[in-house]
Design brief:
TIM Barrel, alpha/beta, globular, five-stranded parallel beta sheet, 20 strands, single chain, 2 domains
């Protein structure tokens, strides 16, 4: 039996959805995209262009929910399936778009570089419980106007796993689409085997900018999956109550589903988000707060109630170092996410309110993800009945270390973590160097980088990726890409 967590009953979910539908129909959605307003008008919405506002109706919302797929698959650069976002299947990906990195050697938080990003991709390539890459942090050694496409370029050039990414400009999407087409070969092949998911973020309260709404439309046109990342802040930019914030999250995400489905019915979507409470003492948005995690799990229940796969920014920490707080917040978040059946869990590796990535934390979080995946497999009998023969052998042999039953079921029943997790006794720990968690994590990062193997993309594909990226860099005044990126 798979263990599960529920925070909302169906009656409360139904009331939250009903209230959210009323809001998008009567108060409307602020949209700063004239073309999208025209599309909504053509589909039956009442549009006030002067106020940049669209008032949806029950029919539009119903059609959008009905046409959005109940699940979809994701594939690596070689076209091999890696994900199936459906039911209660759980997949982990690093948190994305951080502006800083925690330097594992100095312990300082600093701006990342291209070399850091390549190292990150190599580390992720070797983490078995992290199913996809994300465009995890923003290298500071390239112009900001190309940072979106540049991160996707490096991810595709050095890694095999699919990528969770996003664009901060309308122009960047075109380049990022071309990078994906260079790998897949055609628009049809990309539609059949998606390579990336794009994060698209409404603005609180219930607003879509020109850029983010156009990103949704462009993704839909090329069948690129979208995760909607609504970010209500309880007590600041949304009601202070968790239910009130969930109503707002539902309204904002419903509006995103409508946009995607009128652009192209059947566009794959994830009912996602990154809400948080607002800590008025420090004016911060703690992702490690239990109430934040509760909202994530609750809105995932709402997404599943509507028949949609889900995503959440959870399994991360607000700590500034790889310390006990980092482990506490990340471990609790990953466990709650897995028990809730959140299909795409974004967060491993992240620190400092989603602003910092740490490779050392990422390898520790990989072990946390492995533990939660074992948890949700639950407990089931494995040749345990009748029990008497096993206990007869135990009484006879005084142990079961080499018993047939042990050898048959050991690996599937008991998970053995990697060297980051210390399970030695005190004497052996001293004998092996008395390494702290930080030291073990640094060693593991170095080992993974050294063990990295190139993805195996053909020279033609890697050459085309580089040609596209070099042309984009020149367009923004950069004569050459950083040397380590070639």
């Amino acid at each position: 039996m798979r263990p599960t967590l529920r925070l909302l009953d169906d009656g409360l979910i139904d009331r939250i959805v009903s209230e959210a539908r009323d809001i998008v129909c009567t108060l409307g959605v602020e949209i700063h995209n004239p073309g999208l307003l025209d599309m909504l008008d053509a589909h039956g919405a009442r549009v006030d262009k002067a106020a940049a506002r669209a008032f949806l109706n029950e029919s539009i919302v119903d059609r959008a929910i009905a046409s959005a797929p109940a699940g979809f698959k994701l594939y690596d650069v070689h076209g091999r399936q890696t994900h199936h976002f459906s039911g209660d299947q759980v997949h982990f990906t690093p948190g994305s778009a951080a502006i800083n990195i925690l330097d594992g050697e100095t312990g300082a938080i600093r701006k990342p570089t291209t070399a850091d990003y390549i190292r990150y991709v190599k580390v992720v390539s070797g983490l078995p419980h992290i199913a996809s890459q994300s465009t995890a942090f923003i290298p500071a050694d390239v112009p900001s106007r190309i940072s979106d496409s540049y991160r996707l370029y490096l991810s595709l050039l050095y890694g095999e796993k699919p990528v969770v990414t996003g664009a901060f400009t309308i122009e960047a999407f075109e380049v990022m689409k071309d990078l994906q087409l260079a790998v897949r070969g055609s628009e049809q092949a990309l539609a059949e085997k998606p390579l990336a998911i794009f994060s698209c973020c409404p603005t609180a309260p219930i607003k879509w900018s020109d850029v983010t709404s156009q990103n949704v439309i462009d993704c839909a046109r090329y069948s690129v999956p979208v995760e909607f990342v609504s970010m209500p802040l309880s007590g600041f930019m949304s009601p202070v109550t968790l239910v009130g914030s969930l109503v707002q999250h539902t309204a904002e995400t419903l509006s995103g589903v409508v946009i995607s489905q009128i652009a192209r019915p059947g566009t794959p979507v994830l009912w996602g988000g990154s809400p948080a409470i607002f800590d008025i003492r420090y004016e911060t948005t703690p992702m490690g707060a239990i109430e934040t995690m509760m909202m994530d799990c609750a809105y995932s229940e709402i997404g599943h109630f509507l028949g949609l796969p889900t995503q959440a920014y959870i399994s991360l920490s607000d700590a500034k170092q790889l310390d006990a707080q980092a482990g506490l917040e990340t471990g609790m978040g990953a466990t709650l996410a897995a028990l809730s059946g959140i299909n795409s869990v974004s967060g491993p590796g992240m620190l400092d309110f989603e602003s910092c990535q740490s490779l050392e934390k990422l390898v520790v979080d990989n072990e946390i993800c492995g533990m939660t995946k074992r948890l949700v497999r639950g407990i089931e009998p494995r040749d345990d009945f009748p029990a008497r023969p096993i206990f007869e052998e135990l009484l006879r042999e005084k142990h079961l270390l080499i018993a047939k039953h042990t050898r048959r079921h050991l690996r599937e029943e008991i998970g053995f973590p990697g060297p980051v997790i210390d399970r030695a006794n005190h004497a052996r720990w001293l004998e092996e160097g008395a390494l702290t968690l930080g030291a073990r994590a640094r060693h593991e990062v170095a080992r993974l980088v050294a063990a990295y193997q190139p993805s195996g993309l053909s020279a033609d594909v890697t050459g085309e990726l580089t040609r596209i990226m070099q042309a984009e860099a020149r367009r923004h005044g950069m004569d050459a890409l950083p040397e380590r990126a070639t």
